[in-house]
Amino acid sequence: MFCLTGTTSVLSHELAYPIDVSSGGWELGLIDLTTYNSIPNIETGINDKFYYGDDNVITFPEGSYEIEDLEKFIISKLSGKEIKFSLKANNNTLKAELCCSEKVDFTKPHSLAKVLGFESRIYDPKVLHISALPIDIIKVNSIRVECNVTRGSFLNGQEGHVIHEFYPAEPPGYKIIEIPKNVIYLPVIAQTINNLTVSLRDQDGSLVNFRGERISVRLHLRHRNGYTI
After folding, report:
1. Residue 61 within any structural domain of the chain
2. 69 and 96: one domain?
3. Is 228 inside a domain boundary?
4. Averaged in consecutive runs of 10 residues, what is the pLDDT profile of the chain (229 residues)?
5. Of 121, 132, 128, 105, the residue nearest 50 (C-alpha)
6. Is residue 167 part of a domain?
7. Domain that holds residue 7
8. Any domain includes 173
9. Residue 225 confidence (pLDDT)
10. pTM higher than 0.90, yes or no?
11. Shared-domain flag, residues 151 and 210
12. Which CATH number fits the domain that encloses residue 185?
C-alpha cells in the first residue's frame, strides 16, 4: 500500500527503497482519494475580468461562482455609479442573458466571455444580449487520476495512465472522499519502482486547480497471482 499526500495536483515521491517488479504480472489500483472541492471556475489571470464603459474593469477574486453570484458581485461594484446591470441564466436555453446601461467589452484579455457563452466582441448598451453558446460555468467535468508506472487505459484511442476517473458530486467547500466501488487494477510497466507520481487532470488533460488544498491518495500494488513483495 502506498500513501501519497501534498497540496498540488501532482503528487510525486521517491521510494525509500526500490521495488523490483521485473518478474511481471504486477498491477496497481486506486484505493481512495480525499481532498476538498475548492476547484474554481473563475481563475486569476485567466477569466477574472469584466470590462464595461470606457475601459472600466471589475476583477473577480478567484473562486467558485454561480451566475447569480457573478451578477451580485458586478452589481455591488457598480453601486453608486447609476449603472444598471442584469445577468441571468435562461434555464430553458441554458444561455446567458445580459443587459447593461454601458457597453460591455468581451474582446479584452481574461474576460468572462467564455464562461458566459458570449462571443469575443463589444456589446451595445441598453440592449438585451443573449449568449451565442450555452453557459460554460462548470470548468471541470471529470477528474482523471493518472499514475506514472501504469498503462492500459485509453482516451480517444490513445493509451494513457488513467487508473480512475470520477466527477466530484460534492459542492464547493465540501470534502471529497472518492472510494471506487470496484478498484480497477492496471498493469505496471516499470521494471523497478523508484518513484510514484500521481497527477489529477481534467477532461482536457489540464491539471486541476485545488487552490492549495491537501490531497491524499492511497494506491495498492498487487500481483495477479497473489504474490507479495
Report:
1. yes
2. yes
3. no
4. 96 93 92 96 95 94 95 94 95 96 96 96 97 93 94 83 92 93 93 95 93 96 77
5. 105
6. yes
7. 2-39+140-223
8. yes
9. 78
10. no
11. yes
12. 2.60.120
- CA–CA separation, 29 and 14 (whole Å): 18
Note the pLDDT of residue 56: 94
Number of domains the chain is built from: 2
Kindly state the cell numbers that stand for 196.
510514484
Q: What letter represents residue 92's amino acid?
A: N
Residue of 143, 140, 141, 135 lying closest to 69 (CA atoms): 135
CA distances from 179 to 29, 33, 70, 103, 207 (A): 11, 7, 33, 49, 21
Residue 96, φ and ψ in degrees, nearest 5: -90, 145
On the 0-12 / 13-18 / 19+ scale of CB atoms within 10 A, 169 is: exposed
Q: What b/e sequence results for 54-87 when a residue is b if at least 16 CB atoms lie within 10 Å of its CB, and e otherwise?
A: eeeebebebbbbebeebbebbeebbeeeebebeb
